[in-house]
Amino acid sequence: MTPRTMDDAAKVLADPTAYADDARLHAALAHLRANEPVAWVDNPPYRPFWAITKHADIMAIERANDLFLSEPRPLLATAAADDYMAAQMEAGMGIRTLIHMDDPHHRKVRAIGADWFRPKAMRDLKIRVDELARRYVDRMRDIGPECDFVTDIAVQFPLYVIMSLLGLPEEDYGRMHSLTQEMFGGDDDEYKRGVSPEDQMAVLLDFFTYFAKLTASRRENPTDDLASAIANGKIDGEPMSDIDTASYYVIVASAGHDTTKDAISGGLLALIENQDELARLRDNLDLMPTAVEEMIRWTTPVKEFMRTAAEDTTVRGVPIAKGENVYLAYVSGNRDEEIFDEPFRFDIARDPNRHVSFGYGVHFCLGAALARMEMNSLFTELVPRLESIELTGEPELAATTFVGGLKHLPIRYSLR
């Protein structure tokens, strides 16, 4: 085989610290889109992969879910972590969420929770979400005139929504949030529990221990909540396996609030940094749906997913061998100059907005409608009440290659 060369810019994709430096990250991704849109990345301690940075190629791979599979490497992790988790799965102790699965099993498991995120369920939930939005904007007013918007508001609001949907007791919300930070923040010094694969497994075991008790409770005494739907879900007439059940809880409880937190906090920062767009939105709240989509594009909370080629193929003329991995760089696709007019301009009226923040195809985000509704409710409550808002310190981004956004957003504001 001819030795493969690597563009130095491609190294950022296998460097968690790059995702905490927007300027560095986007400069490298713009270079790759223009010069090597299918780029070879070999940057230990990660195993090599092909980075896919163009929107059209990301979409094409997402559509071809029989050719590009989620298993066995659905996201970027170190080689040691990949090996450790594979061994745990063989021992019946790993994690296997919807993002790890392929059809037809994926479709069957996804269906168990799907009804809770359909339009009718969202309409029924909207009154409660609007009430919570008012509560948290009132809280922002009460703790003002300064706060850390991430920790004081952006974390709390979507956490409360998803935990309520699951039917978990309020005293457990903090525990769920801490475990989520440790799981998604395994590369971040502020969030991580430790540096070894065993440390990450310990986080999952804490999740699983909690949800094993919840499953037993909901099977013995079913209630009208999402936790009961998961606990009593069946595949081909049989109860889900313990791993699939616990993993279902983990992905809903963690991604169900953390990604929305990232979009909310990053969306507010974009409004602060673009005061003309904030004024435009305040003057015309009918722009809220497109503003929310632009915030989601702008922040891209889920940075990537990976796929494995089921057979020899090509992407943009580049040969991809069976068994090789491709890295779908959503954060790059969402700034693709061929798709978005002035992609580095924050435009609350951008339409169309074909962002890939929720994925595409069979793995399109189950909770997309809920995330959109939460953001719409919060900003519809917040924006008309804002008299002024500014930064009081430097915003801080998490170091991560998977799910992440702002860790801290110190602001000063005046609220009606």
UniProtKB/TrEMBL annotation:
An annotated GO BP: cholesterol catabolic process
Pathway recorded for this protein: Steroid metabolism; cholesterol degradation
UniProt keywords, alphabetically: Cholesterol metabolism, Heme, Iron, Lipid degradation, Lipid metabolism, Metal-binding, Monooxygenase, Oxidoreductase, Steroid metabolism, Sterol metabolism
Signal peptide range in chain numbering: none
InterPro entries with a match to the protein in the record: Cyt_P450, Cyt_P450_B, Cyt_P450_CS, Cyt_P450_sf
One MF annotation (Gene Ontology) recorded for this entry: steroid hydroxylase activity
Cofactor names: heme
Protein family per UniProt: Belongs to the cytochrome P450 family.
Protein's recorded name: Steroid C26-monooxygenase
